[in-house]
Amino acid sequence: MATSYDYAPLYRSSVGFDRIFTLLENAQRARSTNDWPPYDIVKNNDDTYTISIAVAGFAQDDLDITFQSNLLTVTGKKQETPADGYLHRGIAGRPFEHRFELADHVRVNGADLNSGLLSIELVREIPEALKPRKISIQSTPALTSTAPAQIEAQKAA
């Protein structure tokens, strides 16, 4: 059962959040029913993540990882092998594509293929200008107590 949400009221009452609403709409619309090959997303600590994709039977040359504008795309296309001699072919080698929307300031740190698992390391690096900083409070010297200046006026006759 698919549920569709209308984000129009949120667009009317917020400013600067359009990217978030677009992400929500795209996630709703483009949700793939095929989650093959299976994958895990692990949060290692506050600023590092690992995406592990089970790519058994795929060689390093069969896989492609691209990162552009907060979108990480992992594609796999196995080279065709002749079916000669197979009595049963149960290891799936069909092409796949996974897309992951990454938050601002998250970048790909590296990728590793080991024992049929493709591991992609992600790290969030917040620029120095956007990190919280301590603002010092300065005290001003107390005002000296002086009599207020009086404007002299001419006396009325």
Structure characterization notes:
There is one protein chain. This protein has 157 residues and is mainly β. The chain has 2 domains: 1-31, no CATH class; 34-80 and 90-128, Immunoglobulin-like (Sandwich), CATH 2.60.40. Helices cover 11% and strands 31% of the residues. The protein has helices spanning 8-13, 18-29, and strands at 39-45, 48-54, 63-68, 71-76, 96-101, 106-114, 117-124.
Topology, element by element:
Layout (H helix, E strand, L loop, with lengths): L7 H6 L4 H12 L9 E7 L2 E7 L8 E6 L2 E6 L19 E6 L4 E9 L2 E8 L33
Antiparallel strand pairs: 1-2, 2-7, 3-4, 4-5, 6-7
Q: Alpha-carbon distance between the termini? A: 94 Å
Q: Main sheet: which strands, in order across?
A: 1-2-7-6
* Helix/strand order, N-terminal first: HHEEEEEEE
CATH class categorisation of the largest domain: Mainly Beta
Q: How many structurally independent domains?
A: 2
The count of helical stretches stands at 2
Characterize the biggest β-sheet: 4 strands, antiparallel
CATH architecture of the largest domain: Sandwich
* CATH fold descriptor of the largest domain: Immunoglobulin-like
Average pLDDT taken over every residue? 83
Question: Which consecutive residue ranges, at least 5 long each, have pLDDT under 50?
Answer: none
Radius of gyration based on Cα positions: 30 Å
Proportion of beta-strand residues: 25-35%
